[in-house]
């Protein structure tokens, strides 16, 4: 990948992960205000915003091992976001149609970042 293509990829992923975080936060604000709803609310906000924050950190990391570390955290947090979205539906706190786009986006982000990590690990 050329330097300009890499820069464009990074900027697109920064935007994509930030939009994902915003969507999850907005969804979380609509969860019921009860013990379980509050718990999912906090967990989903934490992990979805961590996807974006750690991806951004990977873009300015000083070494390949640090980039891999930050990407790994983003992957784990994207997977956790999937879990909390699925759990909200399982517990009937949300309808599946409301979470499908975010669930798919979390999965796609994780898949992209896994491939990026694999590429870096070959270096």
TrEMBL record:
It comes from the Bacteria. InterPro entries: 23S_rRNA-intervening_sequence (IPR012657), 23S_rRNA_IVS_sf (IPR036583). This is Four helix bundle protein.
């Amino acid at each position: 990948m050329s330097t300009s293509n890499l820069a464009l990829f990074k900027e697109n992923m920064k935007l994509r992960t930030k939009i994902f975080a915003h969507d999850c936060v907005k969804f979380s604000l609509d969860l019921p205000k009860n013990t379980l709803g509050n718990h999912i609310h906090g967990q989903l906000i934490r992990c979805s915003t961590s996807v974006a924050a750690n991806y951004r950190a990977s873009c300015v990391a000083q070494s390949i091992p640090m980039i891999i570390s930050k990407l790994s955290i983003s992957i784990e947090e994207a997977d956790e976001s999937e879990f909390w979205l699925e759990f909200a539906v399982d517990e009937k706190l949300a309808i599946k149609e409301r979470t499908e786009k975010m669930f798919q986006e979390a999965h796609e982000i994780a898949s992209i970042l896994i491939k990026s990590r694999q590429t870096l690990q070959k270096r």
